[in-house]
Amino acid sequence: MKKRSFYSLLIAILTAFSLNAQDVSLTVPDMTVDPGQWFSIDVKASDFDNIASMQFAVIWNPAIIQFQSVTSLNANMPDFTVINSFNSAFASEGRMRVSWFWFDPVMNVGVTLDDNATLFKINFKAVGGQGTNTMLEIADDTTVDPPFVVEIANYEQEVGVAIDNGKVTISGVNATEESLTEDFTLFQNSPNPFSEITYITFNLNTGTDARLTIFDNSGKAVFHQIKKFPAGISRIPVRRDMLSSAGSYFYTLETARATATRQLIMQ
């Protein structure tokens, strides 16, 4: 009898320990982008089992990457919406708060997602200089009192959170001679730097509608051309009088399926 009681107690303790040992993993990947590039980062979760609530802040350096929007919210999370779940009022300062709560009041269960499921995407524009970087972190927001801390809970209790934060690095676009995408190859303009005229060259795999845009360092579009370009090589002249002043610019080629950005310099 005593032996049975001991083993029953041991099983109960181990069961309670395993329940308390649940850790939800939140992951932000590393990414390397070109200056001026618009890009998206997936915030993913694993071991998201029977979860009823979560809150955390996402923090970055706004001088390196500029917040644009949140999209692709996980459709398996009821009541998870941009309006209700995201506070981006301080995105210009490099922080955004995320909060969500839901459970089935009949079954008393939360939400379970597949491992490595995307919770949402954050869309940014790279505004930092070549070689700069910023951490993109899931963390506490300590700028408020009380702090907005990282918390995830199932229906019964708070669970552990394992966080794998990422880094966004702004590459030097002049380090390579071409940018390859599924639709086209975008070459470095030549000559670069230039004084009077340079040429932007790209090679389309098939004829398609495309947009070529040149941006200044503030992100303002100073030139754009939209047309159906033929398959093969296209060569677009850029003259000094098309740009406002000497300095660095970024040009982006966009099709329905692909985007690439490179830098040009006018002396």
Give the topology.
Layout: H1 2-20, E1 23-27, E2 31-33, E3 38-46, E4 51-59, E5 65-71, H2 82-85, E6 86-87, E7 95-101, E8 117-126, E9 133-139, E10 151-154, E11 158-164, E12 166-170, E13 178-180, E14 184-187, E15 197-204, E16 208-215, E17 221-229, E18 232-239, E19 247-254, E20 259-266
Parallel strand pairs: 1-11, 2-12
Antiparallel strand pairs: 1-3, 3-8, 4-7, 4-9, 4-10, 5-8, 6-7, 9-12, 10-11, 13-14, 14-15, 15-18, 16-17, 16-19, 19-20
Describe the structure using short key phrases.
49% strand; four-stranded antiparallel β-sheet; Immunoglobulin-like; 2 domains; 267 residues; twelve-stranded mixed β-sheet; elongated
Order of SSEs, N→C?
HEEEEEHEEEEEEEEEEEEEEE
Q: What fold name goes in the CATH topology slot of the largest domain?
A: Immunoglobulin-like
Helix content: under 10%
Uncertain residue ranges: 6-20
Radius of gyration: 25 Å
Q: What CATH architecture of the largest domain do you see?
A: Sandwich
Distance linking N and C termini: 90 Å
Arithmetic mean pLDDT: 86
Describe this structure in a few short sentences.
By secondary structure, the protein is mainly beta. It has helices at residues 2-20, 82-85; strands spanning 23-27, 31-33, 38-46, 51-59, 65-71, 86-87, 95-101, 117-126, 133-139, 151-154, 158-164, 166-170, 178-180, 184-187, 197-204, 208-215, 221-229, 232-239, 247-254, 259-266. The chain contains two helices and 20 strands.
Describe the overall structure.
- The chain is mainly β.
- Strands 1, 2, 3, 4, 5, 6, 7, 8, 9, 10, 11 and 12 form a twelve-stranded mixed sheet that branches. A four-stranded antiparallel sheet has the order 13-14-15-18, with no helix packed on it.
- A hairpin with a 3-residue loop joins β13 and β14.
- It has two domains: 22-170, Immunoglobulin-like; 173-266, Macroglobulin (MG2) domain (Immunoglobulin-like), CATH 2.60.40.1930.
- Helix content is 9%, strand content 49%.
- The model is unreliable at 6-20 (pLDDT under 50).
- The protein has helices spanning 2-20, 82-85; strands spanning 23-27, 31-33, 38-46, 51-59, 65-71, 86-87, 95-101, 117-126, 133-139, 151-154, 158-164, 166-170, 178-180, 184-187, 197-204, 208-215, 221-229, 232-239, 247-254, 259-266.
- It contains two helices and 20 strands.
